[in-house]
Amino acid sequence: MGISLKQAIIVADSTADVPKAMVEEYGIHIVPMRLSFGEESFVEGIDITVEEFYDKLTKSKELPTTSQTSPSQYVEVYRNLMQEHPGTPIVSLHISSGMSGTYQSALLAKSMLEEEEGVDADITVIDSLCATYGFGLQVVLAARMAKQGISPGEIKAEVERVGKERRLYFLVDVLEYLQKGGRIRKSAAIVGSLLNIKPILSVDQEGIIYPVDKVRGQKKAVSKVIELFLNDLGDRKDVNIAVCDAVNPEGAEEMIRLMSEHFTLHEVVRTSIGAVVGTHVGPGTVAVFVWPA
């Protein structure tokens, strides 16, 4: 196993939804995303809390817009870290390139710094191919490996390996936000709401959200999610789990309880779905991420 002379610095964008306590414990550098409600602009996690975001979302007629972090912003982040920690490698992880251009911004920032004379830019950029804590679990894994002095190349290889074994489902509570975001037609949203339809979404190997199923009623939908995990994982019963919710803590706790009846849960992480994903799935959504223990 390769040991780095200096512990790698871990950078991630705020869409990883890593709980604050873990960010502080592992010294992860979070680069916040920006979002706007009309003329009002906010920095995720700084100007607006998760609760404030969902409150605004439910009151707003239009969906907020989110803007990816620019290459120049990443140049500034990387340059500041290199000046503060000379000769220290940086491992930078990002929301799926299938959902945002942030990964491309980070790659461009890396190449811009590499072209600068006298700059030793030891930066490894990783596409998580996921969002919220499906991405966050990779950030935390990278940070734990960095603390052990493991080299950036091996961190990247392990993070990508775990990404391939990760399984996840989003259980959407209301159809309004999928409709507003153009993912379903208005007529389908109206009929679906009347029939109490609950969509189940996932993320494919290219990091793109896709519909898995739609089930009538909350109880049946939760049972379907459990069934999907049982099919996905086969004989594997020892797992880590993260459950993220959009202002639906009761739904999240119920999901953990039901998963514990079928699997041996090792690490259990609870966190919130942030603004970027929350804009499209809406309040009430519960997301479950499972990866090998």
UniProtKB/TrEMBL annotation:
<dbReference type="GO" id="GO:0008289">
    <property type="term" value="F:lipid binding"/>
</dbReference>
<dbReference type="InterPro" id="IPR043168">
    <property type="entry name" value="DegV_C"/>
</dbReference>
<keyword id="KW-0446">Lipid-binding</keyword>
<dbReference type="InterPro" id="IPR003797">
    <property type="entry name" value="DegV"/>
</dbReference>
<dbReference type="InterPro" id="IPR050270">
    <property type="entry name" value="DegV_domain_contain"/>
</dbReference>
<dbReference type="Pfam" id="PF02645">
    <property type="entry name" value="DegV"/>
</dbReference>
<protein>
    <submittedName>
        <fullName>DegV family protein with EDD domain</fullName>
    </submittedName>
</protein>
